[in-house]
Amino acid sequence: MPSIGVRGLKGARGLKTTNKDLSPVQQLLEKKYNGGFLNRSEKVIPAVLFIMAAVSVLTTLGIVLTLIFETITFFRDVSIVEFFTSTEWYPFSNTDPVYGIWPLVLGTLKITLIASVFAIPIGLAVALYLSEYAGTRTRKIMKPILEVLAGVPTIVYGFFALTFVTPVLREIFPSLELFNAISPGIVVGIMIIPTIVSLSEDALSSVPEPVRHGALAMGSTKWETASKVIFPAALSGILASIVLGVSRAIGETMIVSIAAGSTPSAALDLTSSLQTMTSYIVQVTTGDAGFGTTIYYSIYAVGFTLFVFTLAMNMLAQFISKRFREEY
Amino acid sequence: MTLTAVNSTKNSESMQNQELFVYNTKNLNLWYGDHHALKNINLGIKEKDVTAIIGPSGCGKSTYIKTLNRMIDLVPGVKTNGTIEYRERDIFSKNFLVEELRTRVGMVFQKPNPFPKSIYENIAFGLKIHGIKNKQIINETVEKSLRGAALWDEVKDRLHEPAYGLSGGQQQRLCIARCLALEPDVILMDEPTSALDPVSTLKVEELIQELKEKYSIIIVTHNMQQAARISDKTAFFLNGEVVEFDATDTIFNSPADSRTDDYISGRFG
């Protein structure tokens, strides 16, 4: 195998030219550089990776464009002013359908609000406990359990809301209707707790240990250290985890479809049936309206509104993590 | 030259008054699990001395200084017996809150570890957690502490900027200032210059010289020249034992133990 490689190696060793002088390692190295395969594969890899990246970007673009075009089609039939200003949503009326998005937005907001009130304090408390107080063993047991909670299909959560949480709540508050905002709100909260815990815990744990020691060595208690040094230091990650959790609550579909009912309502009441943007889309796509009808196109308008909400949340999360970033 | 002079005055002072010990360690033993890291330590540390602790890596010097403010408690599986008295109070006693001990005994760490807050907030933090809310007192203390740590002139125009924008040496002096804000009795320094460049090191050493007028300082260092330059007393640790503890110039010029001699003359370590 006469080659450049051999000459290079020979030069380095300052010895004779024959192959048998090469050690096994040198022989293998020589083989690697003489094959020419390395050069070709290094050129192909970026191209393959670029195609993968392009596919995912184009898919997203395609979805957004579909949403936009179908939404435009919808607004040929329905006035955009009515869509944003009317407080009634009666698409199935035969005589006089009304398309005012507000009741659906309000339904989504009710669920999101209850979920947040429930999940944020619990999620942050658990994250603080796991990162600052729990021993390694407790953490090793609790984190996987929380991850299992994150993996439970939402249909199971929905079922849980309707058949367990609602009856329990109705025992306590008899005036609560079978379909209401509170029960699915709480269960959506349970669903987003793992998101908040997991990301907040990561943010808290990534505050360097010497910072903790610095605070403790000044005579602060564990709680003072956690709440006044570690928590503020991790704030950007914590806020981002909250925003992410909230945006999951906004987009949550199955739980609200099952346990919140399907009555678009502009009332602020939390004890009665409501409909969210997502559950309206489910209602229509599961067969209540034919293709090409105004109702069919309305799901695109609702979907687009929903998309604007979650997009805004994602941008908020990005902004927060930049704005509050602490360098260690 | 001056070292000897300083030591002799210190010694004569302590002759007059036997109550000047800040720390008295009696028969201290410490284990990390099964590893016997400190063996029967007996040390009396005098007030307003700079006491240097030297020794090769793994000799227990860092362990010992961390025991003095009970930061060692944070290491899982540590067992101790024997006593350490701080101002004649047993630091392991249930009646002595560890937070109180650490308020009176400040600590500067190996690597600068300012809080991810502004320069001002780094100093104000100690006061705030101890319930001092008076803005005027806080402002005055921030300035006094930064002056005390020879940092004021460099940072006075950017007190509200993040502490992480400072250089490593400035950060370490900020950490010293942070200690000073609580007006501690003792300052423990665990290799405070090992992460600093020579110029910053010199500044910190000069600072220690000034601080010893008001504070008792215990400093762990692996730099023997540093110990010789700044300390009054030196303890030589080896394999978890105190081999020799004496006036610094005695340790460096006429050590009693041959192992001390071997170490300071660079034959090992």
From TrEMBL, chain A:
Lineage: superkingdom: Bacteria
Membrane-spanning residues: 47-69, 101-128, 148-169, 181-199, 229-250, 295-317
Keywords, sorted A to Z: Cell membrane, Membrane, Phosphate transport, Transmembrane, Transmembrane helix, Transport
Lipid bilayer topology: Multi-pass membrane protein
Location of this chain's protein in the cell: Cell membrane; Membrane
Domain ABC transmembrane type-1: 105-317
GO terms (BP aspect): phosphate ion transport
Gene Ontology MF terms in the entry: phosphate transmembrane transporter activity
Predominant subcellular localization, coarse grouping: membrane
One GO cellular component term noted in the UniProt record for this chain: plasma membrane
SUPFAM superfamilies on file: MetI-like
InterPro entries with a match to the protein in the record: MetI-like (IPR000515), MetI-like_sf (IPR035906), Phosphate_PstC (IPR011864)
Keyword Disulfide bond: no
Function: Part of the binding-protein-dependent transport system for phosphate; probably responsible for the translocation of the substrate across the membrane.
Family statement: Belongs to the binding-protein-dependent transport system permease family. CysTW subfamily.
Protein name per Swiss-Prot or TrEMBL: Phosphate transport system permease protein
Organism the protein comes from: Domibacillus iocasae
Source lineage: Bacteria, Bacillati, Bacillota, Bacilli, Bacillales
TrEMBL record, chain B:
Keyword ATP-binding assigned: yes
Residue ranges of domain ABC transporter in the record: 15-264
Name of the protein in its database record: Phosphate ABC transporter ATP-binding protein
Keyword entries, A-Z: ATP-binding, Nucleotide-binding, Transport
A Pfam family matched in the record: ABC_tran
SUPFAM superfamilies membership: P-loop containing nucleoside triphosphate hydrolases (SSF52540)
Gene Ontology terms for molecular function: ATP binding; ATP hydrolysis activity; phosphate transmembrane transporter activity
GO BP, one annotated term: phosphate ion transmembrane transport
InterPro entries documented for this protein: AAA+_ATPase, ABC_transporter-like_ATP-bd, ABC_transporter-like_CS, P-loop_NTPase, PstB-like
NCBIfam families (UniProt xref): 3a0107s01c2
Entry GO CC: membrane
Entries under PROSITE patterns matching the protein: ABC_TRANSPORTER_1, ABC_TRANSPORTER_2
